[in-house]
């Protein structure tokens, strides 16, 4: 049985024990990515969930692990192969949009939402010759995709007619090169999609009152399980979410089931996920992630109630939403920013 | 010049080298190179499948913003203004299942068909020419699907294409290149900030080039788009021709104008079918040997009529003999008919005339493409599969393809997928391929089963038809399949 410890204690201890020796060894032999400032030094990987205390590595340091960067650099070449290493991610991508749609349409704080979306019932059943989807009276959305990888989500978000712009960031230069060269293959993307080699910490800070520069949707899909300080990471992310906007995440719950399915079956037996992609010890349980947004009065004033959706991968079929499965495996978590002030 | 050089180069140099060469050319003539004319969907082929797809995309508010083009070799204005006198009918007719009719209604095209020329039918009579075992397809009380008691609708293909063109004109927004032949299809260019090297470019007569995010091959059995995508189509020729003709009967059918009946008799040379059209008109589809087909086309009208009547009435031996006669089948038929007992009410009414110039034939074959999709390519209708006409399913399969592809594109648009990528097209293949393959197989086996004149298979197949006829639920299943109202197997 896994001890059900508070998230501040359990994850860091295991992560520290398992990862650090390996990290140091690999760093020495890995070619350094060009933006060295984005890599955390192994010595600072103290407490993953320790957010606002003395162990804070400071804004110049990052939550992203160098080991992870080199792993994803190595995967870059097959990122866009529909039958390659990222097939499971390609298949999951439409669900991300469904989840965002779901979050935004059931927003309990719609008065804060700057953007209102056309509900499907407003769409006329049969369009006349001249009518195109009426998006002119709808404020278009600004997306920030953190840890965009090869750009599977970023490209798809940019293609949506309701999107104004997508800023996609990732610290792995190899995958960003793939992302950029793949985006060149679709002329509709360049007006809306921008890639930036950056982590959330190195992204230029926004003035608290620069609401129009903030984002309606901030996404970090399959990212949190790869960062060293999730709480610190989320602290940084908060300021980029527009009041009324949504922070949307997906990750894997740390359970025996997820170890069996994502580490043992997916990586070792079936090979549908490249070996070494997942470090089970970094997985975060749904209640741990949810807890971050609800742990203090301050956080509860800033964030709305998190929404979760559990999904299960069925080989040969794809991803399916399974209510309750957020407790055992892959899940989405979405949370709306309700506070207008950055430091509320 | 540039195009010629490139084509020549392509003949001698490997593809990657050619690409490089193209790039150099591109750089060299960069100021002269026209900006690519990019469409979301370029549909090659303006038949029922291609036109339905464009109408479906234009009619759906989710996909109506897509930039779409149609390339068709024929002059479409003639098709659109197609008109025949009320008592004259085209010889190319198809059976539209209620499922196809519903889809055409959903995309707003059904109302544009001339309804006075569409004939629903409510009963099917199918029997074995050798043993006379019979199956009557009529709806037992309570077994009819909800749409009513119509099994299918008989309709001239031109009435459908003309109606679809009228609907497209009403919807607007389609760049139509008619009377335009596809000269060749190449890949796009790669420049510093744009890589179209995996985008098909359709070169049409007159020098126009259309770059396609998704190139749809609705261009028939010899699909140039399928050839471009390198997709093989496997199958065989039946060594049979389908003879079609517009027939005039002695009346409007045994059931009157409100209960029309379709008839099909399995002869050893292939099935002969007579399908009801409005009034006293019926359309003939007779699958037979190429020799018989050429004889039928040469006969005087009265002898042709006699042979058609004989095909539904006389024994297969008598019929075979009549095919050996060069002429005068009419006299032979009158004499032999006196010696053949039959129940006239179980057969189609007697044919009294054939409309002039409507006897034609085409070779029958079975083909199935290895897949329906490639990078930025999708195949629909006959470009994807060619089926024996005995079940009247060819056009309906195409409509099923189009409905599925339009749904796939809609899903891709709402989820930000690239509508031309394999990833987003996969669901189209998985939805249609197995269903089409099963139907192709069933129809192929039916043809082979009934081509046998003697041997152990003959009593068995009669037992099959009689058994199906006796078993209500099984018959109802077959009828629902024929009507396309149950599972989307057909």
Automatic annotation (TrEMBL), chain A:
Enzyme class: transferase
Residues that, per the record, bind S-adenosyl-L-methionine: 96, 147, 170, 221
GO CC, any one term: extrinsic component of mitochondrial inner membrane
Record-linked CDD domains: AdoMet_MTases
Biased amino acid composition, Polar residues: 47-65
Residues binding Mg(2+): 222, 225-226
One biological process term in Gene Ontology: methylation
Record pathway: Cofactor biosynthesis; ubiquinone biosynthesis
Cofactor(s) in the UniProt record: Mg(2+)
EC assignment: 2.1.1.64, 2.1.1.-, 2.1.1.114
Subcellular location: Mitochondrion inner membrane
Record keyword Glycosyltransferase present: no
Chain intervals with Low complexity compositional bias: 29-46
UniProt superkingdom: Eukaryota
The gene coding this protein: COQ3
HAMAP family: UbiG
Catalytic activity: a 3,4-dihydroxy-5-(all-trans-polyprenyl)benzoate + S-adenosyl-L-methionine = a 4-hydroxy-3-methoxy-5-(all-trans-polyprenyl)benzoate + S-adenosyl-L-homocysteine + H(+); a 3-demethylubiquinone + S-adenosyl-L-methionine = a ubiquinone + S-adenosyl-L-homocysteine; a 3-demethylubiquinol + S-adenosyl-L-methionine = a ubiquinol + S-adenosyl-L-homocysteine + H(+)
Role noted for this protein: O-methyltransferase required for two non-consecutive steps during ubiquinone biosynthesis. Catalyzes the 2 O-methylation of 3,4-dihydroxy-5-(all-trans-polyprenyl)benzoic acid into 4-hydroxy-3-methoxy-5-(all-trans-polyprenyl)benzoic acid. Also catalyzes the last step of ubiquinone biosynthesis by mediating methylation of 3-demethylubiquinone into ubiquinone. Also able to mediate the methylation of 3-demethylubiquinol into ubiquinol.
Coiled coil: none
Region (Disordered): 28-65, 115-134
Family, per entry: Belongs to the class I-like SAM-binding methyltransferase superfamily. UbiG/COQ3 family.
Annotated membrane topology: Peripheral membrane protein
InterPro entries membership: SAM-dependent_MTases_sf, UbiG_MeTrfase
Assembly: Component of a multi-subunit COQ enzyme complex, composed of at least COQ3, COQ4, COQ5, COQ6, COQ7 and COQ9.
Keywords: Magnesium, Membrane, Metal-binding, Methyltransferase, Mitochondrion, Mitochondrion inner membrane, S-adenosyl-L-methionine, Transferase, Ubiquinone biosynthesis
Example of a GO MF term: 3-demethylubiquinol 3-O-methyltransferase activity
Name under which the protein is recorded: Ubiquinone biosynthesis O-methyltransferase, mitochondrial
TrEMBL record, chain B:
Entry EC number(s): 1.14.15.45, 1.14.15.46
Localization (cell): Mitochondrion inner membrane
Molecular-function annotations in GO: 2-methoxy-6-polyprenolphenol 4-hydroxylase activity; 4-hydroxy-3-all-trans-polyprenylbenzoate oxygenase activity; FAD binding; oxidoreductase activity, acting on paired donors, with incorporation or reduction of molecular oxygen, reduced flavin or flavoprotein as one donor, and incorporation of one atom of oxygen
Pathway: Cofactor biosynthesis; ubiquinone biosynthesis
Transport as UniProt keyword: no
Keyword Membrane in annotation: yes
Subunit (UniProt): Component of a multi-subunit COQ enzyme complex, composed of at least COQ3, COQ4, COQ5, COQ6, COQ7 and COQ9.
Family (UniProt): Belongs to the UbiH/COQ6 family.
Protein function: FAD-dependent monooxygenase required for two non-consecutive steps during ubiquinone biosynthesis. Required for the C5-ring hydroxylation during ubiquinone biosynthesis by catalyzing the hydroxylation of 4-hydroxy-3-(all-trans-polyprenyl)benzoic acid to 3,4-dihydroxy-5-(all-trans-polyprenyl)benzoic acid. Also acts downstream of coq4, for the C1-hydroxylation during ubiquinone biosynthesis by catalyzing the hydroxylation of 2-methoxy-6-(all-trans-polyprenyl)phenol to 2-methoxy-6-(all-trans-polyprenyl)benzene-1,4-diol.
Protein name, entry field: Ubiquinone biosynthesis monooxygenase COQ6, mitochondrial
């Amino acid at each position: 049985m896994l001890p059900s410890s508070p998230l501040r204690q359990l994850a860091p201890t295991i992560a520290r024990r398992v990862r650090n020796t390996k990290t140091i060894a690999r760093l020495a032999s890995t070619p350094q990515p060009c933006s060295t400032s984005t890599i955390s030094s192994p010595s600072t990987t103290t407490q993953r969930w320790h957010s606002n205390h003395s162990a804070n590595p400071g804004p110049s340091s990052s939550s992203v692990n160098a080991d992870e960067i080199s792993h994803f650099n190595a995967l870059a070449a097959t990122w866009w192969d529909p039958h390659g290493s990222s097939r499971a991610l390609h298949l999951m991508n439409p669900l991300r949009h469904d989840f965002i749609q779901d979050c935004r349409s059931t927003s309990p704080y719609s008065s804060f939402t700057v953007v209102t979306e056309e509900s499907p019932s407003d769409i006329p059943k049969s369009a006349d010759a001249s009518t195109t989807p009426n998006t002119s009276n709808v404020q278009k959305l600004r997306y920030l995709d953190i840890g965009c990888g090869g750009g599977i989500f970023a490209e798809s978000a940019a293609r949506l007619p309701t999107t104004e712009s997508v800023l996609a960031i990732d610290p792995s230069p190899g995958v960003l090169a793939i992302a950029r060269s793949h985006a060149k293959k679709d002329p509709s993307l360049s007006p809306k999609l921008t890639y930036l080699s950056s982590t959330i910490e190195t992204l230029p800070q926004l003035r608290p009152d620069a609401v129009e520069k903030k984002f309606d949707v901030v996404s970090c899909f399959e990212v949190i399980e790869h960062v060293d300080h999730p709480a610190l990471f989320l602290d940084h992310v908060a300021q980029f979410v527009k009041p009324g906007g949504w922070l949307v995440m997906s990750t894997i719950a740390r359970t025996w089931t997820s170890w069996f399915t994502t580490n043992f079956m997916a990586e070792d037996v079936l090979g549908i996920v490249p070996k070494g992609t997942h470090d089970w010890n970094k997985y975060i349980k749904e209640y741990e992630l949810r807890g971050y947004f609800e742990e203090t009065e301050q956080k509860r004033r800033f964030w709305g109630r998190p929404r979760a959706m559990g999904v299960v991968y069925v080989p040969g079929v794809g991803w399916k939403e399974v209510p309750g499965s957020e407790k055992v495996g892959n899940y989405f978590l979405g949370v709306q920013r309700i506070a207008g002030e950055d430091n509320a | 010049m540039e195009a010629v050089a490139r084509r020549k180069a392509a003949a001698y140099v490997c593809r990657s080298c050619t690409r490089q060469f193209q790039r150099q050319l591109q750089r060299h003539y960069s100021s002269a190179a026209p900006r690519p004319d990019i469409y979301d969907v370029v549909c090659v082929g303006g038949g029922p499948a291609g036109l339905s797809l464009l109408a479906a995309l234009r009619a759906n508010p989710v996909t109506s913003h897509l930039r779409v083009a149609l390339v068709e070799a024929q002059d479409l204005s003639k098709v659109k203004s197609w008109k025949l006198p009320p008592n004259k009918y085209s010889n190319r007719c198809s059976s539209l299942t209620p499922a196809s009719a519903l889809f055409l209604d959903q995309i707003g095209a059904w109302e544009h068909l001339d309804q006075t020329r569409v004939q629903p039918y409510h009963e099917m009579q199918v029997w074995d020419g050798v043993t006379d075992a019979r199956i009557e397809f009529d709806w037992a009380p309570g077994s009819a699907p909800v749409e009513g008691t119509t099994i299918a609708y008989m309709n001239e293909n031109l009435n459908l294409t003309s109606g679809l063109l009228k609907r497209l004109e009403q919807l607007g927004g389609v760049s139509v290149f008619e009377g335009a032949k596809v000269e060749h299809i190449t890949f796009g260019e790669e420049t510093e900030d744009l890589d179209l090297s995996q985008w098909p470019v359709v070169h049409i007569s007159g020098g126009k080039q259309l770059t396609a995010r998704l190139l749809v091959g609705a261009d028939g059995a010899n699909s140039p788009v399928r050839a471009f995508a390198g997709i093989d189509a496997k199958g065989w020729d039946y060594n049979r021709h389908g003879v079609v003709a517009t027939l005039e009967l002695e009346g409007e059918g045994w059931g009157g104008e409100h209960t029309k009946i379709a008839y099909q008799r399995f002869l050893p040379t292939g099935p002969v079918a007579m399908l009801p059209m409005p009034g006293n008109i019926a359309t003939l589809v007779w699958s037979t040997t190429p020799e018989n087909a050429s004889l039928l086309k040469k006969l005087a009208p009265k002898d042709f009529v006699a042979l058609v009547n004989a095909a539904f009435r006389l024994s297969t031996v008598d019929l075979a003999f009549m095919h050996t006669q060069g002429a005068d089948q009419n006299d032979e038929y009158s004499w032999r008919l006196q010696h053949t007992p039959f129940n006239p009410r179980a057969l189609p009414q007697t044919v009294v005339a054939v409309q002039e110039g409507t006897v034609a034939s085409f070779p029958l074959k079975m083909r199935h493409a290895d897949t329906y999709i490639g990078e930025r390519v999708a195949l629909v209708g006959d470009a994807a599969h060619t089926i024996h006409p005995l079940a009247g399913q060819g056009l309906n399969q195409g409509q099923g393809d189009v409905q599925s592809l339009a749904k796939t594109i809609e899903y891709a648009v709402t989820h930000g997928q690239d509508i031309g990528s394999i990833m987003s097209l996969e669901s189209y293949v998985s939805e249609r391929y197995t269903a089409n393959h099963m139907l192709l197989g069933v129809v192929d086996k039916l043809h082979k089963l009934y081509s046998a004149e003697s041997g152990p298979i003959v009593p068995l197949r009669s037992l099959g038809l009689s058994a199906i006829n006796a078993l209500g639920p099984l018959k109802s299943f077959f009828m629902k399949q024929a009507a396309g109202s149950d599972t989307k197997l057909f």
